[in-house]
Amino acid sequence: MGEDKKNTAAGLKAAAASDVDQITGHRRMRRTRIAEWSRRLTRETRLTVDDLIWPIFIIPGTNVLEPIDAMPGVSRMSVDKAVEAAKMAADLGIPALATFPNVEMEHRDQTGSYALEADNLINRATRAIKKEVPQIGIITDVALDPFTDHGHDGVLRNGEIVNDETVRIIAAAAVHQADAGADIIAPSDMMDGRIGAIRQALDAAGHQSVGIMSYATKFASALYGPYREAIGTSGLLKGDKRTYYLDPANATEAIRDAGLDVEEGADMLMVKPGLTYLDICRALKDTYGLPVFAYQVSGEYSMVKAGAAAGYIDGERVMMEKLLAFKRAGCDGVLTYFAPEAARQLAKGGW
Which of 31, 204, 227, 345 shows the greatest Cβ crowding within 10 Å of its Cβ? Predict the structure, then answer.
């Protein structure tokens, strides 16, 4: 017993000799973490509802809400329901929607020609939303995958995605989307030269004020599966998209690719997917200084939902932590299926 006391005294004496204040020079990092008010006061990165863009899926019909099995909590919606969703989003303070169509198979063909119909599903949705909720922004994608019978983002000829013909079609489709009231055209197809072609077509049609949010760095990712179910292309896709999407291993190529889009007239840049490419988000922001957005894609969303449903994670906290990560990486905003949930959480404060 006496020996134990002797050892304890020796240990305390040794600890005193290496006093924490001597080690840190009286610098204590925990001082600003002690209270909630001080943590709020020194918080470096802030997420607000202004950072959220809500992607929604449009289907034909009236009064239709069709749950997407692979994306719990997300539904395809008919145009009238999309208008209701837009009103809800505006009430929550969400600045913009990104719309994606799931059209009938009878409208899909090898070249995606339905994209050129002025009154196609996506353009009808834009007109309806803008009529009822004019204050909300509408971002439309001109990639052809929702309109092709093979699931690719461009024209398929002899086993090849033909670049230049695809660019001509999407530039024309962009004009129709702008005519319908789209505020921003966001081409996700990754064809060479499409940003410049879209800018020229928009300007020639008198749409100088319509912006372009380039999917500047869209990677050939394994995280798109639930999205393809949502737009009805998962069973159509022949082959893969590696001949036009970026290799996940290539950061330098991604920066070069984005640079060409900047030169061609992109107003904003997007990184897709999001969380696995935070280094690209930061690089684009630091290199070009344009507004940068991340797309928190369907696979990212579904993994959080699945983990929460299984009880493995706190879904709400993980949702907010991941959204904060995009902001910390330099993003000006995030396209996320969590937008309504996140907006409600933000309204409670604490983030």
Answer: 227
